Backbone:
């Protein structure tokens, strides 16, 4: 019974996600769903990514911020000068397709070609809820430990890109990039992994270039 | 409808949690439910806490490890020589009272007076599921950022103790202990906050003494 209800919820969500996806496709928008623990560095990564994208001038981004409470992240992102909408889940542990559908009218879809969705800080639940994204990007910081891909395989299985953040702190931790990569590959052989530091800029070029490439691919398609 | 189903699940869970709680009370066991993000340092904190408790010899602890997958944490804890049971939730984002009830027969309840429950790494969902603990302890590492108490208020509201971990890394971050404390107090004025570093031992004495005090209180009651 409980399983049945959960399946119904997931099915309704998947249908709505498909509708969102069609809308994004119609506008030629790449949609990146960022998933990671609280404090893994998603918001700072976004701030630095938006700054780099603006400097290079090839992409027109916008952001949807998901949080249980507060609009702190949306306020931070708004300083970058890009369109941003905050979703407060009121305690809900993930964004779903209906929440995203509800805020799409507040975004200038005709003027953008890249939409970042910063999901609620949670390495577990958001992995199971398609919101209509082009793909999921899992964010793992070195301070969380290299055992996380094996311990939280679902999100690594469902993502196309893994960003290993806070590389500037790696020398203060026991994090082994090799061990993390090995476990990521064992969960998802196709996962593209990019180590970086939003603070120092290390590895940011590869990430920004990947986004530009993919945006070009979507708008051409 | 969906809300009703969720309420039913929570109510069934609360009833089972009360049964667990009665059992723990009958055995004079203090039960501490550790909640925090993946990688906030729960397992290392437990390892160092168990070592300190053993050295001081006043408390007889055991551990329940909750993870989506793998028994890596239970294997780490087993090296401390204390009884440990691993629960794998198979993708589930929190422990619930029925999962705990199912493993209680595997624990030597008559021989222990402190049970640590390391919940699934998740700052959101475990906060809403009573498992029959004496109280919840929220674990927040400085590398996650000082904005988390305001952004994830539910778990801080439901906890009696907040441990601010990885204090040895604070100089490499922008974490303000003052800002974090202010937001914690605003969510929960009674929350007892202990900053510490399991790695360097800083602040560990206060935490271990608190546990010993509380264990004594429970076994006397």
Residues:
């Amino acid at each position: 019974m409980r399983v049945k209800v959960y399946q119904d919820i997931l099915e309704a969500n998947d249908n709505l996600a498909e509708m969102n996806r069609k809308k994004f496709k119609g506008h030629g928008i790449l949609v990146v769903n960022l998933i990671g623990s609280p404090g893994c560095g998603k918001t700072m990564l976004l701030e630095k990514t938006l700054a780099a994208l603006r400097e290079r001038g090839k992409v027109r981004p916008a952001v949807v911020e998901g949080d249980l409470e507060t609009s702190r992240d949306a306020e931070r992102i708004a300083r970058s000068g890009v369109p941003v909408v905050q979703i407060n889940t009121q305690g809900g542990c993930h964004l779903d397709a209906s929440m995203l559908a509800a805020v799409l009218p507040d975004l200038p879809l005709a003027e953008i070609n890249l939409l970042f969705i910063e999901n609620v800080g949670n390495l577990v639940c958001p992995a199971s809820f398609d919101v209509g994204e082009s793909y999921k990007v899992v964010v793992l910081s070195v301070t969380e430990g290299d055992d996380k891909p094996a311990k939280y395989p679902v999100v690594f299985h469902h993502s196309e890109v893994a960003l290993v953040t806070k590389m500037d702190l790696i020398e203060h931790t026991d994090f082994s990039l090799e061990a993390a990569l090995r476990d990521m590959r064992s969960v998802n052989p196709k996962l593209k992994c990019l180590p970086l530091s939003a603070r120092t800029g290390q590895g940011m070029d590869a990430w920004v270039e990947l986004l530009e490439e993919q945006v070009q691919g979507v708008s051409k398609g």
Notes: The beta strands of chain B are 30-36, 61-67, 84-88, 114-118, 135-141, 159-165, 192-195.
